[in-house]
What we know:
Strand order of the largest sheet of chain A: 1-2-3-5-4
EC number (chain A): 2.7.11.1
Radius of gyration of chain B: 12 Å
Number of helices of chain B: 4
Keywords (chain A): Kinase, Serine/threonine-protein kinase, Transferase
Low-confidence stretches of chain B: none
Low-confidence stretches of chain A: none
Pfam families (chain A): HATPase_c_2 (PF13581)
CATH class of chain A: Alpha Beta
Number of domains of chain B: 1
Protein name (chain A): Serine/threonine-protein kinase BtrW
Distance between the termini of chain B: 29 Å
Largest interface: A-B, 29 and 27 residues
Largest sheet of chain B: 5 strands, mixed
CATH architecture of chain B: 2-Layer Sandwich
Oligomer: heterodimer
GO molecular function (chain A): protein serine/threonine kinase activity
Strand order of the largest sheet of chain B: 1-2-4-6-7
Number of helices of chain A: 3
Mean pLDDT of chain A: 92
CATH superfamily of chain B: STAS domain
Order of helices and strands of chain A: EHHEEHEE
Number of strands of chain B: 7
Helix content of chain B: 25-40%
Amino acid sequence: MTNPQADIHIELEGTPQEVRNALETLRHKLTAQEFAACNAGVLEIVLAEVLNNVVEHALAGRQDGQIVIACNYSDHCWFVEVRDNGAQMPENKLPDGQMPDLERDLSDMPEGGFGWGLVRSLAQDIDYQRRATGHNRLSFRVPD
Amino acid sequence: MNVSSKTEGDALIVSVHETRIDASVAIQFKDRMREETDDVSGRVILDLSEVDFIDSSGLGAIVAAMKQLGGSHPLELAGLNENVDKVFRLTRMDTVFRIHNSLTDAIAI
């Protein structure tokens, strides 16, 4: 499904616990290999938000959700690809990533809606494609 | 979700003994915060010094904990590592919470 040459290749099922395990695996690989200085923290934040969105939206209500992550590092940059077998993005396009407005009373303070804002703040060249095979393919890069 | 609390002067210090506050534990975190701050009388300082990662769901759970406390018991934060601090800054939540450099600083006020 993905390039086996990927520096980091992780496959997971579409649940919050699997997302946590995958990110812990990612962190382990990042500290074990020569990538420790390569903006690993930012890569982890972006991947967490992307994976949470896949689990909460594209794979909502599904028992057979599968996600594949490939991260390649070159030229001071992480090139990341995330594929899943979930539903298409609404209107076939990515969320705009507007951060929620915080100029409001405490009781109305937003508890969500930050995910895509974080992705758009930290990742570049974000591309989304719906494949004829029924998969979503998201790619982006994270400079170090 | 391992969370403990103790009183220092006028402040209740709630310490999170977990490395991650993420989507898989956000609800437990909110529930544990409610239990720990049930009969609070002063300010509350959330000690995040053992936490090395939060995602937007974890952030949302911390916001929910602040809202549970209501306006009379502000939730202050201490011990944010670089990545945790980044999530607060990028979402502008650093303008909503009072953030201390360390627990020692937070208690000294």
